[in-house]
C-alpha cells in the first residue's frame, strides 16, 4: 500500500544558499525506506535563496520517520543551504531542522527533530545515523595539535588539507564582513583626510579623521575626570573596578597629596574605611614584553603600556572620579599623580592607564575570556553531540560564526606581522600580546565568567558599596534569566543526576572537552555527574558568548576610535618625574597617524553588527528553530518574556542617565560571538 508524503522544504537566505543542482530524497522510517525521489517541478526554479518549496511524493509506508537522506548530485560547487523540512502524511507530522549545507556531490542524513538522549533512541537504524553523523563531524572538526596551543584553550585545526567547514564560514554578507568594514573605514578616512605637511599631532589632528565617519560621543568630554571614571563602570572593560579598604603595597599616597580632593574633614584612611575608594589595577602587564624593533637603518621603535594602577573615589556628588594614579609598581621610582598636579601630568597619567587597560582588555578580557574559551565548547559539541541531542539543540545558535571569527582573529590580528603588530604596545617580535593572553588564561577559571561571583570577588556586588554601576545592574538580571532558561530546558530531559551519568554522548562530550579543550581545573567540577553542574557550565557559556562578549566588544568604536581617550600604545616611556610634560611632549607620546588610522578602523569593524544578526531578544522570534517540545517552547517563551521585561528596565534607566548604557539591551545582544 502506497503512502503520500508532503514535504515543505525551506532553503536558507544567505548568499549562495540556493542551488540549481538536482536534489533527491529518500525517506527512512522504522519499517524501512523509500526509493529515491527527485525533487523537481517543471518550469520552476527549485531551491532558490530563501524559498519554501512544497513537494508530494508517493511510496511505501516506511512507518515512523527517522531521517531524510538528501543527495546533491552537482559535480561542481553548487552547494545548497537546507534550513528545515516539514513532512506530513495524513494526520502525522515530522520536523527536520538542519540549518546546514548539503555540499555538491554529497549525501547527508537529516535526523528527525525530536530531542532525544542516546538512551531514548528507538531503534538500531536511528542509533547508527547518530553515530555516522558524529564520525563525519570528527573528520571535519579536528583539534589543533596540543603543541600549537600550549598555555591556551584547545582550538579547531585549520590547514590547507582541512579547511574551515562550510557550515562555520563567516556570514559572507557585504555589510557584515568585518574585513569589508575595515576596508571601507580606511577608505572613508583617507578620502576625507587632508594631506598634512606638518608634524602629526594626535591631540589636535585626530578630529580630521572624522570628516567622513561619525565622531564618538565621548570626544567632547574625554579629558573630564568624571568621564574617565564613568568608563570604569560602563565602558569597554567594566570588570576591573575593585573595592579596597587599604592602599596597595608600594602606592605612596598621603593626605597632603590629596588635599581638597576628599570630602571636607575626611582623611584618606577614613575614605578607605568607609569603602569610598576603588582600584583599577593592571598588574597583569607586569613583565610582559612591549614592542621593540630596530629597522634596517638602525632606528629603534618602542611602545609602552605600563602596569599602572588607579584609585577612584565616590565623592559627595554621588559620582566616581579618579583620585590618584601610579604608572608602575615601584614606590621609589614611580610617582603617584593626582588632580593636584599639572594639567598635562594628570592627563598623561590617565591616558597611560587607558593604554594599559586597552592592551589587557583586547587580549584577556575580550579575546581570551570570551572568544577563545568558548571555542573548546563548540568543538566538543560538534564532535560528540548529534543534532537530536538536547544540548546540541540548546547551544547551536550560540556558536554561530565563532570558529570563523576566531580563525580570522588569529590570522588577521594576532599572527606575526598581522594588524596588532602595527599598533598595539604588546605586539611585535617578542609577541607580548600572546604572553599576555597566556598569562590571563593561566589565572582564569570558567567560574570567573559568572557575573555574581566576579562582582562579589571584587567587592562591588552590593549597590550600597558602588551605587552607580550600569554593567552590574544590567548583567545580573540577564544572568538570572539565562540560568533559569538553561535549567528549565535541561530539567526537561535530565530528570535526575543518573540520567546525566548514563548519557554516553554527553559523557563523551565532557571527556573530549577536558582532554583537548579545557583542563578540568578550569571547570567547576572534575567529573560531570550532576545536572546542576551542567546547568552552571552551559549558563556561564551562553552568558559569556552573548552578554559578556557584548559588554566588552560593541563599545570599541566609541571607546577606542577617539584615540587620545584610549590609545593602544604609547610611544614614550611613562614619566618618572612630575612637571616635565607639556602639550608637545604628550603629543609625541600618542600613536602615529598610521597607528591611529588602524585603531579607528579596527574599532569600527569590531563594533559592527551583521545584516543577519540574531539577538537574544529577536524581533519575531529566533529564526533557527531547534526544539519542538511544548514544554521546552514554554521555557523559551518565559525566557523571552524576562528579556522583554529587562529591556523595558534598561530603557527606563537610560531615560534618566546622562550617558545611556545600551550594549546590554537584550534586543542588541547577539546570541553568540559573531565579530
What's the gist of this structure?
The chain has helices spanning 124-140, 178-192, 225-234, 268-273, 343-384, 390-395, 402-414, 419-423, 432-443, 451-457, 470-493, 497-501, 504-517, 531-553, 556-560, 583-589, 593-606, 630-655; strands at 2-11, 23-29, 32-33, 37-38, 52-60, 65-72, 80-89, 92-102, 106-111, 242-243, 277-281, 292-294, 300-302, 309-314, 320-326, 336-337.
Task: Please name the defining characteristics of this protein.
675 residues, alpha+beta, Lipoxygenase-1, five-stranded antiparallel beta sheet, 18 helices, 16 strands, 14% strand, Lipoxygenase
Distance between the termini: 53 Å
The chain-level structural class is alpha+beta
CATH fold assignment of the domain at 2-113: Lipoxygenase-1
Reported CATH architecture of the domain at 2-113: Sandwich
Spans where pLDDT lies below 50 across 5 or more residues:
none
Helix content: 25-40%
Rounded to an integer in angstroms, the radius of gyration calculated over CA atoms is 28 Å
Mean pLDDT: 94
**CATH class of the domain at 2-113, anyone?**
Mainly Beta
The proportion of strand residues reads 5-15%
CATH superfamily of the domain at 2-113: PLAT/LH2 domain
State the total count of DSSP E strands.
16
Q: Counting H and I runs of at least 4 residues, what is the number of helices?
A: 18
Largest sheet: 5 strands, antiparallel
Q: What assembly state would you assign to the polypeptide chains in this entry? A: single chain
Taken from the alpha-carbon principal axes, the silhouette is elongated
Amino acid at each position: 500500500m502506497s503512502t503520500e508524503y508532503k514535504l515543505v522544504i525551506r532553503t536558507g537566505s544567505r548568499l549562495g544558499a540556493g542551488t540549481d543542482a538536482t536534489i533527491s530524497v529518500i525517506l527512512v522510517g522504522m519499517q524501512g525506506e523509500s526509493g529515491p525521489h527527485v525533487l523537481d517541478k517543471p518550469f520552476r526554479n527549485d531551491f532558490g535563496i530563501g524559498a519554501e518549496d512544497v513537494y508530494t511524493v508517493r511510496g511505501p509506508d516506511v512507518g515512523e520517520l527517522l531521517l531524510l537522506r538528501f543527495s546533491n548530485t552537482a559535480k561542481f560547487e553548487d552547494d545548497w543551504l537546507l534550513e528545515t523540512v516539514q513532512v506530513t502524511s495524513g494526520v502525522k507530522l515530522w520536523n527536520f531542522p538542519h540549518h546546514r549545507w548539503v555540499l555538491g556531490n554529497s549525501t547527508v542524513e537529516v535526523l528527525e527533530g525530536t530531542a532525544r538522549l542516546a538512551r531514548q533512541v528507538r531503534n538500531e537504524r536511528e542509533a547508527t545515523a547518530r553515530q555516522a553523523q558524529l564520525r563525519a563531524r570528527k573528520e571535519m572538526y579536528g583539534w589543533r595539535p596540543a603543541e600549537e596551543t600550549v598555555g591556551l584553550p584547545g582550538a579547531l585545526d585549520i590547514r590547507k588539507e582541512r579547511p574551515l567547514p562550510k557550515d562555520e564560514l563567516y556570514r559572507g554578507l557585504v555589510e557584515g564582513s568585518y574585513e569589508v568594514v575595515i576596508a571601507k573605514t580606511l577608505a572613508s578616512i583617507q578620502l576625507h583626510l587632508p594631506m598634512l605637511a606638518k608634524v602629526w599631532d594626535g591631540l589636535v589632528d585626530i578630529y580630521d579623521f572624522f570628516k567622513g565617519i561619525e565622531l564618538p560621543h565621548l570626544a567632547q568630554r574625554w579629558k573630564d575626570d568624571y568621564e574617565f571614571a564613568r568608563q570604569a563602570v560602563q565602558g569597554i572593560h567594566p570588570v576591573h573596578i575593585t573595592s579596597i579598604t587599604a592602599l596597595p603595597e608600594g602606592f605612596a599616597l598621603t593626605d597632603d597629596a590629596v588635599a581638597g580632593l576628599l570630602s571636607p574633614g575626611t582623611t584618606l584612611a577614613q575614605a578607605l574605611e568607609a569603602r569610598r575608594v576603588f582600584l583599577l589595577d593592571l598588574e597583569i602587564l607586569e613583565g610582559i614584553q612591549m614592542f621593540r624593533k630596530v629597522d634596517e637603518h638602525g632606528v629603534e621603535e618602542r611602545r609602552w603600556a605600563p602596569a599602572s594602577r588607579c584609585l577612584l573615589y565616590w565623592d559627595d556628588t554621588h559620582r566616581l572620579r579618579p583620585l590618584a594614579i601610579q604608572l608602575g609598581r615601584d614606590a621609589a621610582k614611580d610617582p603617584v599623580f593626582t588632580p593636584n598636579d599639572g594639567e598635562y601630568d594628570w592627563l598623561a597619567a590617565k591616558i597611560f592607564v587607558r593604554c594599559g587597560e586597552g592592551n589587557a582588555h583586547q587580549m584577556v578580557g575580550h579575546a581570551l575570556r570570551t572568544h577563545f574559551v568558548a571555542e573548546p565548547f563548540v568543538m566538543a559539541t560538534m564532535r560528540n553531540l548529534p543534532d537530536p541531542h538536547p544540548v546540541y539543540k540548546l547551544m547551536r545558535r550560540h556558536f554561530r560564526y565563532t570558529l570563523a571569527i576566531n580563525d580570522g582573529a588569529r590570522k588577521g590580528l594576532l599572527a606575526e606581522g598581522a594588524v596588532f603588530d602595527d599598533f598595539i604596545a604588546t605586539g611585535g617580535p617578542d609577541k607580548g600580546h600572546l604572553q599576555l593572553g597566556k598569562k590571563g588564561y593561566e589565572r582564569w577559571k570558567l567560574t570567573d565568567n559568572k557575573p555574581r561571583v566576579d562582582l562579589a570577588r571584587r567587592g562591588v556586588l552590593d549597590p550600597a558599596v558602588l551605587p552607580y554601576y550600569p554593567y552590574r545592574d544590567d548583567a545580573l538580571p540577564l544572568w538570572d534569566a539565562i540560568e533559569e532558561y538553561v535549567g528549565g530546558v535541561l530539567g526537561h530531559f535530565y530528570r535526575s543526576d543518573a540520567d546525566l551519568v548514563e548519557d554516553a554522548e554527553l559523557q563523551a562530550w565532557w571527556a573530549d572537552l577536558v582532554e583537548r579543550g579545557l583542563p578540568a581545573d578550569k571547570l567547576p567540577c572534575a567529573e560531570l555527574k550532576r545536572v546542576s553542574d551542567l546547568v552552571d557550565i552551559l549558563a556561564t557559556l551562553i552568558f559569556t558568548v552573548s552578554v559578556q562578549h557584548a559588554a566588552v566588544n560593541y563599545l570599541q568604536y566609541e571607546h577606542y576610535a577617539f584615540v587620545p581617550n584610549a590609545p593602544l600604545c604609547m610611544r614614550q616611556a611613562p614619566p618618572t618625574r612630575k612637571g616635565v610634560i607639556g602639550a608637545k611632549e604628550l603629543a609625541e607620546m600618542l600613536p602615529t597617524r598610521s597607528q591611529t588610522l588602524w585603531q579607528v578602523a579596527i574599532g569600527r569593524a569590531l563594533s559592527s553588527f551583521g545584516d543577519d544578526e540574531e539577538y537574544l531578544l529577536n524581533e519575531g522570534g529566533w529564526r533557527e528553530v531547534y526544539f519542538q517540545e511544548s514544554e521546552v517552547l514554554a521555557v523559551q517563551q518565559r525566557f523571552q518574556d524576562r528579556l522583554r521585561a529587562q529591556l523595558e528596565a534598561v530603557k527606563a534607566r537610560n531615560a534618566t542617565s546622562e550617558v545611556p548604557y545600551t550594549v546590554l539591551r537584550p534586543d542588541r545582544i547577539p546570541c553568540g560571538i559573531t565579530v
